[in-house]
């Protein structure tokens, strides 16, 4: 007896077969099932975020728990926008060279590059040139948003408790090689 209609299962079978054949072909030519691609579009964490938590709204306190302890998630923020950088533990994880950027909004240090000065790890931009801040912050936000391995996850609510304190003292700015920002 012949069937007259395609069922959803047939579609799944065909798509599954094509994907399998594609993976096989890719492995034959590149020794990788994804033609050498390892970015966010094949990272389950990216799709988990896209489907199950389209937009996060974190407090600064909540953000501070995403520093990758116990193999956990790594989030960093720049002027209120939060990015997931979990796929690069070598750089942002507890032993990474830029670990000090995660779990907080350190917009200021993205502008100044004064990494050795602890009070630069803040979103207090007072005393800095407005145009420089706009350009650098936009540049870094774009870097994380469009990066192959990182993605935007939502917002952190910034408070302005620092307003009654002095802003960080001036420091000599250092720019990222390659002029990002
Ligand atoms: C405003 C100044 C700077 C900022 C905000 C900055 C920030 C960053 C960030 C966020 C990364 C990680 C990039 C990624 O995720 O792929 C990075 C990587 C790197 N940066 Fe900087 N950077 C600055 C200046 C510098 C300077 C002056 C140097 C060298 C003299 C430098 C050397 C490096 C190196 C070598 C890496 C690669 C790190 C690694 O893969 O372990 N950066 N930088």
TrEMBL record:
Signal peptide: none annotated. InterPro entries: Cyt_B5-like_heme/steroid-bd, Cyt_B5-like_heme/steroid_sf, MAPR/NEUFC/NENF-like. The chain crosses the membrane at residues 12-30. Keywords: Membrane, Transmembrane, Transmembrane helix. Residues 58-157 form the Cytochrome b5 heme-binding domain. It comes from the Eukaryota. Belongs to the cytochrome b5 family. MAPR subfamily. PANTHER family: CALCUTTA CUP-RELATED, MEMBRANE-ASSOCIATED PROGESTERONE RECEPTOR COMPONENT-RELATED. This is Cytochrome b5 heme-binding domain-containing protein. It comes from Candida metapsilosis.
């Amino acid at each position: 007896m012949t069937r007259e209609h395609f069922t959803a299962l047939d579609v799944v079978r065909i798509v599954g077969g094509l994907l399998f054949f594609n993976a096989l072909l890719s492995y034959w030519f590149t020794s990788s099932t994804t033609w050498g691609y390892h970015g966010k579009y094949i990272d389950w964490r990216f799709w988990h975020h896209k489907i199950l938590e389209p937009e996060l709204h974190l407090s600064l306190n909540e953000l501070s728990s995403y520093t990758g302890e116990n193999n956990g998630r790594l989030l960093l923020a720049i002027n209120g926008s939060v990015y997931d950088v979990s796929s690069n533990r070598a750089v942002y994880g507890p032993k990474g060279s830029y670990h000090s950027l995660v779990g907080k909004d350190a917009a200021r240090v993205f502008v100044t590059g004064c990494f050795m000065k602890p009070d630069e790890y803040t979103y207090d931009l007072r005393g800095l040139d407005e145009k420089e801040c706009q350009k650098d912050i936009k540049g870094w936000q774009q870097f994380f948003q469009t990066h192959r391995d990182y993605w935007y996850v939502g917002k952190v609510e910034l408070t302005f408790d620092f307003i009654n304190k002095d802003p960080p003292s001036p420091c000599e700015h250092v720019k990222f090689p390659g002029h990002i920002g």
